[in-house]
Design brief:
- The protein is mainly α.
- The protein contains nine helices and no strands.
């Protein structure tokens, strides 16, 4: 199983990018998970994001200005949960500073637990989002996304932040050949955008048809697959596990 997984990942790693090993495809999986989670938060939890904090800051401003469809409290709770998750991610980054494989494995395992708790909360309420359900889901999902963002930052794979696309899209245009640039990693940048789009599309389809629990279950599977795959691929002689220079 481990050898098959290693061979499969090698076919997905572009030549010249071996220093990141399996991290790019694994982080694309996390990017899909982000799209799923933000579909849940925005469409089911009342127009709030748990991964896109730029959107939350803007929503908070709108809510304080009197926008009726937005909740200032929800935005504040999401921001606080995200920051706490990022703090935990920073601590994990310090603990596993010398082994990127162990860092991603631990982070995605913790995320799996957090999303599992959110899944249980949603399942107990039969997918109905009341106030008693809304805020626990915002907290647990915000923690998971803050953790993911901090760890992605520490892993340092270019163009794969897993939760935001603004700089990725900017680089795609600003570094392009028509702009006079060298167009580095265009494939990875496009895949990152498509991964987020795919997660959002699938998540929206499920949530809008009343499948909140299923959406969280799919997110849980993606996170668990990331954690297990990272564990299997983190061999002692793998060069990609070392921190980036």
């Amino acid at each position: 199983m481990q050898r098959l997984l290693t061979d499969a990942v090698r076919t997905l790693v572009p030549r010249g990018e071996e220093r990141h090993g399996p991290l790019p495809p694994l982080m694309l999986i996390l990017t899909v998970a982000t799209g799923l989670v933000d579909a849940v938060s925005y469409l089911a939890l009342g127009h709030v994001f748990v991964a896109n904090m730029t959107g939350n800051v803007v929503f908070l401003g709108f809510a304080l200005a009197g926008a009726e469809s937005l909740s200032a409290l929800a935005s504040v709770v999401s921001l606080a949960a995200f920051l706490l998750g990022a703090l935990a991610g920073g601590r994990l980054g310090t603990r596993f500073a010398l082994h990127r494989g162990h860092l991603l494995r631990a982070a995605s395992a913790v995320q799996t637990v957090l999303v599992a708790v959110a899944l249980v909360v949603a399942a107990v309420s039969d997918g109905k989002v009341t106030t008693d359900v809304r805020y626990p889901l915002i907290v647990f999902l915000g923690l998971a996304m803050g953790l993911q963002n901090a760890v992605a930052r520490r892993l340092g794979v270019p163009d794969l932040t897993t939760t935001v696309l603004t700089l990725t899209l900017t680089g795609l245009a600003a570094d392009s050949t028509p702009a006079g640039g060298e167009a580095p990693r265009p494939g990875r940048r496009v895949l990152s955008v498509l991964a987020m789009f795919l997660g959002a599309l699938v998540g929206a389809q499920l949530v809008l048809h009343g499948h909140l629990v299923l959406t969280l279950g799919l997110t849980l599977v993606l996170l668990a697959v990331t954690s297990v795959s990272t564990h299997l691929l983190s061999t002692a002689d793998a060069t990609w596990i070392r921190p980036r220079p």
